[in-house]
């Protein structure tokens, strides 16, 4: 089958379809309960995975700590060269890895391939950055003194990723960490272990060929206690976490109590605003991708639509018509636009949200049903709702779009901002006053604010992340690399006197 071929091509040994998968670098014992990797479109087990136990963590963490001591001495451009080779290896396996992503987490093949492309883009970005870990020089207030700063490697970094971007989010973190001189311990989602194994195989094949070991490690587990052990480990100065607000809060307080750094990328509740001047053809296409893409399971998914009241009928009519043509099915089948949700629990969360909308008095404009067939399929849904309803205020990881109306741009921006999350936002307009206000200091309060493009599908070149309950972290582009390094300020006195700062005379 497609998947067995892809697994073989990716170097993953399965004993038989549905058989166990194991490998020396994350576990050396096979007499333990296995973790199944399940295809959400069929509910069939793709393979059983041997997970890590606490003794594995000790070994993995020791290797990561030891490897850091040598890795930090490898010149950054050389570290970049290794990431360049990894990017090359990913290019060669893009099709197979894209298929595996599609198979294991249910996003359509185009989006699975897109995710691998995001890794490749990130590798290229990191290669360039490896020669640009710039520090500033400052003018000293004292004669014959020189002040400057340097960026040094930080240490082994723990990276915890979610099922919905099972490979790209690791790449955002791992490639910057690697060029920064850090080693990485990756705890992937237990819902996407095969993707993690495949990526790890690709990277470590390159690293081993070049004579490096222990730079990238994998901690596969579905035990929160084992993840907790990693988060508590004082040898890991940085924990990067992508996932829910609830878990992010716990991680932030655990890491905070040992005064480590947490880099958080948590929930979004992203809105598109359509004003009275917007180009609706653009807007409808962007909303379709934003609300239905990845079956509504991106942190950047469009969840709220805030429409000028004069355009409500037109916009909803166009959207309902477009939604009627969405082909739901196996994400690997051509023509399918929306695959399944990740698991049964996600379907129940969808169902609960639909019930809540109805109980609040909202109306379902289209969709609203769970599909009764193998796989975790639901209908993409549009509902008339009000912003303050608890169901609208929370992030439901499913394709549900809440529509509401506004009269003035101030009101639209206020509605956009009146949720606990602050990740992504977008305004469709042809009026410059509106677009400038939206991205001004009194506009959107999100980490990402777009004009005439949707809320999802950000490029890696910008810093990715958000404010408020989204957690404040920034990953991928711009100067996000700084999170993976420690800054050192150096003041050098090249004179023969010892003038004190602030003009102090002492003794
Ligand atoms: C996520 O959903 O965790 O902007 C990341 C986007 C993608 C990344 C999403 N580039 O939609």
From TrEMBL:
GO molecular function, one term: aldehyde dehydrogenase (NAD+) activity
UniProt entry keywords in alphabetical sequence: NAD, Oxidoreductase
InterPro entries attached to this UniProt entry: Ald_DH/histidinol_DH, Ald_DH_C, Ald_DH_CS_GLU, Ald_DH_N, Aldehyde_DH_dom, ALDH7A1-like
Active-site residue list: 265
Domain of life: Bacteria
Ranges for domain Aldehyde dehydrogenase: 26-489
Name of this chain's protein: aldehyde dehydrogenase (NAD(+))
